[in-house]
Predict the structure.
Amino acid sequence: MGVKKTDIVLLDDKGIRCDGRKIDEPRRIMIKAGVLKNANGSAYIEFGENKILAGVFGPRDVHPKHLANTDRGILRCRYHMQPFSVGERKNPAPSRREIEISKVIKEALEPAVMLEGFPRTVVDVFIEILQADGGSRCAALDAAAVALADAGIPMRDMVSACAAGKVADTIVLDINNEEDQEGQADMPVAYMPNLDKVTLIQLDGVLTPQEYEKCANTAIEGCKLVYEVQKKALQEKFFGDSQE
Amino acid sequence: MTAPILDDLKKKKILALLKDGQRIDGRALDEPRALTIDTGVIPKAEGSARVRLGDTEVVCGVKIQPDKPFPDLGDRGIFICTAEILPLADPSAEPGPPGEEVIELARVVDRGIRESGMIDLKQLVLEKDKSVVGIFVDNSVTDYDGNLFDACSYASVASILSCKIPKWEYKDGTITKIEGVLSDPPITTVPVSVTMGKIGDKLLVDPNADEWKCMDARMTITTNADGNICAVQKGGSDGFTPEQLIKCAQLSISTGAKIRDMLKQAGRS
C-alpha cells in the first residue's frame, strides 16, 4: 500500500523466491489457541509477517433481536485492520475491502459450524489484524477456525486457508506481500480437509484453465499443511504440549 | 418480501424439479436467461447501457473526466466501478449506506473488469503523476430478479465498449478540454462474468431470484476473450468440491463465449 516499487527478483533461476522460499513452501506458521481470557474461544496466528488475533463469543443472545433466526443460529464476523498494521496509517473505520473480507470469511466458516444446534443465538467472530502481510484473509480464517474450535462450538470440520498464485509465470504456494503486489495472480482458498470442500475461493489476475486447476490444487495442498498446524495448536491447548 | 409460506412451497418445487434436472422456469441447467443490451440510452453520459437479464434490469452510465492519479500509480488512468440497488428495484431494498451484499456486488463487478485488463489504463495519462483520465462506471439496479453480478457486469462492459473519450490537454497545471474531439476507449479484451448457483450437487447458470433464495452457494467466474480466467468469487454458506471448481470454470468459459459476442455487438451499435 503506497510502497515504492523496487526491482526485486520474484523467482531466480534456481526456483527460489524473493524471500528465499521454494515454490511449494509456505511461510512460517505459528498458531496458539486460547490466548484471551474473556472470549469463549480465541487464537493468535503468525503467518509470515501477519500477526492476527481472533476471538469468538457465543452462542449468545442476538442484538438487535430482529436478526435472530428461529431455526438456526447465525454467524457474524468482523475482519478489522489496526491503523498501525500497514505501511501507511489505515483509517480505523471499516473500509469496503474489510466489509467484503468479513463477508467471505463468514461464508467460509458457515459450512463448518453446526449452527442448527443453536437457534435464536449468534456466534460472533472478531478478527483483529495487528500486522498485515500478503494473505491476511487466509491467516485470519485459520485463526478464526481455531478460535471457534477453542470455544467448543460444534463443527463438522476444521477450515484451513492458504493462498496460491502466479509469480514470474509459475504457480507458487502462499504468496507474500511483494508477490501479491508484483505477481500475476492471487488465489486465496479455504478448505475443509476431511469433507474435501472448498469454502472460499477468490481470484485476482489472469490464469489459463490449466493454471487455474493447478493453482487451486496447490492452494488446497497448502490448506492441508495449515490444517496440521491448527490441529497441533488445539492439541497443545487441551492436552498440553507433551508431543514436543 | 413475500410471505415465508410461499417461499417454502416454491423452494420445495424448485428442489423437486431439480432432481430431474429441470428448472422452475424451464431452462436447461447451463442456460442463462434472455439477455437484451441497449447502449447509448443516456446521451449525457459518455457511455451507457440498459441491460435486462431475465427480469433483472440494470442501467449503467460511464462518466469520463480528468482526475489526479493514485499516488503510487501515476502512470495509469483511473477506473472505478460501483453498483447500487435502487429502492424502487425491490421491496427489501432501502435507501441509505450500502450493506455488505451491495459492497460485495460492486467489488466483484469492478474486480472482473479490472483484473481482465479490459481498459489499457496506461493510455489514459495526460501528464505523468499529475493528471490522468478517470473512467467512472456506475451501475443502478432498477428491477430485481436475481444474479445482479452478471447483469451489472454486462451493463458495465457494454457501457465501456460504447463510450467515447473526450480529449483534454494538460499544460502548466491547467487542463483544457478540446471540444469536438472524441476517441474510442483503449480496449484490450472483453471480460464476461458468469455466475453459477449450487443447489445440492447441481450447478445452475444464471440463477433467477427464486433460485437465488434457495441456493446453497454461488460462484462468479470472469473470463477474458482468450478463454482465460481473470477473477473468481465464491459466496454463500456451503462449499464446492475441487471437481466442481473445475466444472464451474468450464461452464463460465462456454457460457461466456456466447455472451461475449452479444456484448461486442451491443458495443458497436
Remarks:
- The helical segments of chain A are 96-109, 136-150, 177-182, 209-239.
- Chain A has one domain: 29-239.
